[in-house]
Amino acid sequence: MVKKIFFLFVSFFVACGITSAQVDITYQKPPKEILELADVPQTPAVLIDDENENIVLLHRSKYKTIVELSETEM
């Protein structure tokens, strides 16, 4: 009998905790300053040859293309 009461007691508090934890929050954008920091261009990658005579700056896109996004994952 004590086990049943304890189980009901614990179940009640777990159920109350689950239902009160689910708050309906709408999508919120971060402040403008944070968005500007997230959208800065990436720095180029630098490659130097073994003789230190030539340097290459590789500019890359920070977003994947539609083709890359549509590939199946393995």
Uncertain residue ranges: none
Oligomer: single chain
Q: Nearest-angstrom radius of gyration?
A: 27 Å
Order of helices and strands: HHEEH
Strand percent estimate: 5-15%
Mean pLDDT: 81
Morphology = elongated
- Major β-sheet profile: 2 strands, antiparallel
- Considering DSSP H and I runs of 4 or more, what fraction of the residues is helical? 40-55%
Q: Total number of β-strand segments?
A: 2
Category from helices, strands and their pairing: alpha+beta
N-to-C terminal Cα separation, in Å?
52 Å
- Number of helices, counting only DSSP H or I runs of 4 residues or more: 3
Query: In order across it, which strands form the biggest sheet?
Result: 1-2
Detail the topology: elements first, then pairings.
Layout: H1 2-21, H2 32-38, E1 45-48, E2 55-58, H3 66-70
Antiparallel strand pairs: 1-2
Summarize the structure in words.
This protein has about 70 residues and is of the alpha+beta class. The protein contains three helices and two strands; from the N terminus they run H-H-E-E-H. It has a two-stranded antiparallel ribbon. A hairpin with a 6-residue loop joins strand 1 and strand 2.
